[in-house]
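step=predict obj=MFS transporter n=450
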Amino acid sequence: MSVPSAGSEEIETRTVRKLVRRLIPLMIVLYFLNFLDRVNMSYAALDMNAELGLTASMFGLAAGVFFIGYVLFEVPSNIAMLKFGARVWIARIAVTWGLCSAALAFAQGPGSLYALRALLGVAEAGLYPGLLLYVALWFPARRRAQMLSMFLLGIPLSSVLGAPLSTAIMQYGDGLFGMSGWRLLFLAEGIPSVIVGVWAFFWLTSRPQEARWLADDEREWLVGTLEAENQAPPHQKGALGRTVRNPRVLLLGVVLFGQAFGLWALTYFLPQMIKGLETAFGTRFSYLQVGLVTAIPFAVATVGFVWWARHSDRTGERRLHCAVPLLLGAVAVVACVLASNPYVLVAGIALGLTGMLSSTVAFWQLPARVVAGTGVAAAGAIALINCIGAASGYLGPHLFGLLKDWTGSFGAGLYVVAGFMILSAVTVLLVVPARRGAPETAEPSRAVVA
């Protein structure tokens, strides 16, 4: 199918506007709830750790064990989405993770907490790479970074809005229905995911060819544009085995590992770090106050990463837009350790999170240089990269908690976070060749060779 030439700019504007209105709000809500249900344990820990007898390292293990099932089922889940369709599979993921998240309200000790967190990881597996693939299935390459930044708003928003919401539920809902505040938190934030999963089943469309809510010329333009962009060379078609052995795919997984290590460590432990500032301020924080202070770094990161994503799209440059925020964020994390001022700590964490999140949107434009198209090979590559990165979700919180138990402070863990950010930045600069000229689009893997 050819791309219409006459009035194509007007058709593109009209089509993309419809796509954004139809798809992006639900994707934002999905990822907001997904990330909230994944990390609300960080707020529950303010009360849950004492009730269940968890040390910092035990809490870190409970946070990290989620990623075992998540990693093991990531690739199969993403390929299943291609088989069953995005509408069915994304809805299935949302309903099952919501049920598993709500079940955490009934944990009775460390063992049951570990088991439920692992089950939650299995239920959530595939959503993030599935949404990444969904964006690639619906939006032209030059629009994808902006679209990714829009649905990835769910990450910082889950803390900007979720932190005060979660801590308010704990503070004001304690004792309601005879439940501890942290138990009510899991129940209250798990059920909405089930409802949104049902909404996704009836609202989403799996592929552009099936989009009856687009006009005929809009659907023709979109399908033709995507087919032209996603033409893979013959030797790549169906080459899933070759894709998972591609060293550049594996190294991109290392980059994501370093990016995500600090994000998970800080996300799970930041409320406890904020609570620890009580001594510095000479006061006592309520749960809600902890939530409000925790939201500040994520609010800063939200503004920073949206601006950076637009700048990356405007310039068409991805490599430096991925590496530079990580290097600057690493410096900020080290600075907040060296400074004793609590305000500097919050500012350093804010800039560190900004660097981690800002690099993510540019990063997800890089796999298109390695694997062309949006078929099984591309789905496998995205899922494999995300699997390697998701492994940091196990190591990050667990190691961060162990270092806290061993040293009595969070300083050593923050140094490790900065080190992984530098590793990611250096790996990007070494592995991804510099590009000049026109903005990047999805390309065959042969263009990757430096």
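step=describe
Residues 62 and 114 are 5 Å apart (CA to CA).
step=end
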